[in-house]
Amino acid sequence: MSLYILILAIFTACGNQTTGDKAQINVDNNNQVQIIADADAEENDIQSMIVGKFTKEDLMKAPFSSWFEKGYNEYQPTAEDLASIKENISDFEVVGFVGTWCPDSRRELPKLFKILDEAGYDLSKLTMVGVTRGKSTPENLEEGYNMHRVPTFIFLKDGKEVNRFVEYGVETIEKDIAKIVTGQEYKNAYAN
């Protein structure tokens, strides 16, 4: 329960904001956490998030489908970058940390899935993890990944990190991923 209290203490769109003392948390069997900021809150004040491992199919269900499907259907990666990704990504495993509550994750996550789908990437090599506003999970799935911002997409080759995409594209998500998987020099916006 103390983890869930921590969730409430760290509560904004990708940042920090505290909530009232009357907060409630409900977790369902699909790892969706529903936070009600106040016991008297209106229905539109309810935030839902996925905490723990999830798949694309989970994002295609309400309440996530409204933003996921729109972003997925509207996004068209450039043909040149997509060709580079398609040719090189099969050697990589991808571990992604996102906040389904976070506007940056909601913007980039549909794009990532569209890129992977169009590149013919084997999604069994993809691990997606939904985190709380405190960037954590009850199972500590984030441990060892040095992840501080969402979304973070980590590209691994032979079990070792090659590079990562963090929060937003330096150029665009597909250009950044193309650079990562082709071995070009790339630093995310937060890299030293």
Largest sheet: 5 strands, mixed
Structural class: alpha+beta
CATH level 3 topology of the largest domain: Glutaredoxin
Count of β-strands: 8
N- and C-termini, Cα separation: 37 Å
The domain tally reads 2
CATH C-level class of the largest domain is Alpha Beta
Query: Could you spell the SSE succession in H and E letters?
Result: HEEEEHHHEHEEEH
Please, what is the average pLDDT? Answer: 83
Helix content: 25-40%
The shape is globular
**CATH architectural label of the largest domain:** 3-Layer(aba) Sandwich
Which blocks of ≥5 consecutive residues have pLDDT under 50? 1-13, 15-26, 34-46
Strand content: 15-25%
CATH homology superfamily name of the largest domain? Glutaredoxin
Number of helices: 6
The radius of gyration over CA amounts to: 17 Å
Strand order of the largest sheet: 4-6-5-7-8
Concise summary:
This protein has six helices and eight strands. Strands 4-6-5-7-8 form a five-stranded mixed sheet. A three-stranded antiparallel sheet has the order 1-2-3, with no helix packed on it. Strand 5, helix 5 and strand 6 form a beta-alpha-beta unit.
Show the helix and strand layout:
Elements: H1 2-9, E1 24-27, E2 32-36, E3 46-50, E4 52-54, H2 56-59, H3 65-74, H4 79-88, E5 93-98, H5 103-118, E6 126-130, E7 152-157, E8 160-166, H6 173-181
Parallel strand pairs: 5-6
Antiparallel strand pairs: 1-2, 2-3, 4-6, 5-7, 7-8
